[in-house]
Amino acid sequence: MNLDPLTETYGIPFYLQYLAHWPEYFHVCEAPSGQIMGYIMGKSEGSVTQELWHGHVTALTVAPEYRRLGLGEQMMKILEDVSDRKKCFFVDLFVRVSNEIAVDFYRRLGYTVYRRVLEYYSGDPDEDAFDMRKALRWDKEKKSVIPLLEPVRPEDVE
Whole-model pTM? Predict the structure, then answer.
């Protein structure tokens, strides 16, 4: 299902659950040949009253032969637009700390590191994640992107 080794792999029921609940957050780029060039999937979640209502990027992947064409940026824009229409305060995503190419990509799109999540990704050894965020227009004071100074554990992630 994934087009590169750094994108998390999920079971078919997981993808189907997301597609059933948040179809507006799915987008697939397909080549004229029918080959999948890339896809993005996400959701909206959180508390409106606490200004934590947000869009979440669950997976973004582009096949290696279709990179550097702007597909990732286009798909992120689609997800951000959907989140804005749903009056989300921000969009967030988790990325491996070691995935410098992805971290730089998201920074170019206006995302900042909100916090570090210790041992978020399972493996040998476990790996930390950056929780990166981009404020949307509904967060007028940009409170959602003020970085936390101390790292958190996965169980502390709301």
Answer: 0.90
